[in-house]
Amino acid sequence: MKVHGMPGWSNPWFRKSVIWLIVLTVGAFLVGFVLLPSVHGDFSAKGLWASICRAAGVPSDWSFGAKPREAPTATDVVLDRAMGKEGSRQAIGRGATLALNCTMCHGAQGMSTSDAPNLAGQYPEVIIKQLMDYRGGKRSSPIMVALAANLSDADIADLAAYYASLPKARTAPTTYDEALPALVRVGAPLRNIAPCVSCHGGIDQKFGAPWLEGMPKGYLALQLKAFRSGERGNDSEAQMRNVARTMTDQEIEEVSVFYARKAGTPSE
Ligand code: HEC
Ligand code: HEC
């Protein structure tokens, strides 16, 4: 019997050699692209397709199913030193008027009596960045996303100027002259966690890192857990996600109690 278009297929030797060729090709492919790469020490199992791409030398950010470096919620706010400037008197005045919509939760003087964050004395660039992130849907909170949606850039700058101008009801910065939780003082070098004080003021402040002293404990713990799970991913370059990723519940509790206990007296 002769298969149409394939002369010689009826010849058993030809048939066998074709089949063997296929078997050897597939076998070599599996060994070279799947088996060998998979026994490499640094091989992280990401599935068959990923190991084939990897063995073939496809750059890892092309590989399918690989997670993008930044979560889709990554912030698009570029921090600018100008955001940290003190506001003019007009800006502060306008901000005070706009802030009447915020007192219900953030307190009449920006000191919250609930678990909403304090805003009094917060660095202006922090308030600007966070409001822009809510507005752009990069940080989730049904209340804040809805409120921020109606704010213009000018409104946001004025609100930040107002809150930053409030009497520093926030408590004194953390110094080395007191007993500090290890994570706050030295971080955890083995886990690549830098000390909190190296970014959050007191000893040194990284532009864009919020003032934490005196914040409600519940708020601090909630944010740390949200960074840990990746639910909050608006921190640029994953600065906080990298810190929180390996923190235990107990450590979160400890640092939250520490920063919250420094609360001043909330103003009425
Ligand atoms: C109904 C309560 C409520 C009102 C009203 C409200 N907020 Fe908030 N705000 C919250 C809560 C709760 C959070 C924390 C949400 C989260 O987990 O992200 C928050 C977070 C924020 C943050 C982030 C602070 C930080 O340290 O990261 C800013 C800034 C802010 N609010 C500003 C405002 C401004 C400005 C207004 C008025 C225009 C306002 N809020 C009105 C409840 C409120
Ligand atoms: C490498 C610098 C850096 C280190 C170290 C760091 N943080 Fe942060 N942290 C930031 C930045 C920047 C933000 C603001 C992220 C954003 O833009 O949303 C932040 C945000 C936070 C927030 C959210 C506050 C708010 O009002 O939204 C908490 C809580 C926090 N950090 C706690 C900690 C604690 C506790 C430690 C130590 C265990 C720590 N951070 C170490 C840089 C740092």
TrEMBL record:
<protein>
    <submittedName>
        <fullName>C-type cytochrome</fullName>
    </submittedName>
</protein>
<feature type="domain" description="Cytochrome c">
    <location>
        <begin position="182"/>
        <end position="263"/>
    </location>
</feature>
<dbReference type="InterPro" id="IPR050597">
    <property type="entry name" value="Cytochrome_c_Oxidase_Subunit"/>
</dbReference>
<keyword id="KW-0479">Metal-binding</keyword>
<keyword id="KW-0408">Iron</keyword>
<keyword id="KW-0249">Electron transport</keyword>
<keyword id="KW-0813">Transport</keyword>
<dbReference type="Pfam" id="PF00034">
    <property type="entry name" value="Cytochrom_C"/>
</dbReference>
<feature type="domain" description="Cytochrome c">
    <location>
        <begin position="79"/>
        <end position="167"/>
    </location>
</feature>
<dbReference type="InterPro" id="IPR009056">
    <property type="entry name" value="Cyt_c-like_dom"/>
</dbReference>
<dbReference type="InterPro" id="IPR036909">
    <property type="entry name" value="Cyt_c-like_dom_sf"/>
</dbReference>
<keyword id="KW-0349">Heme</keyword>
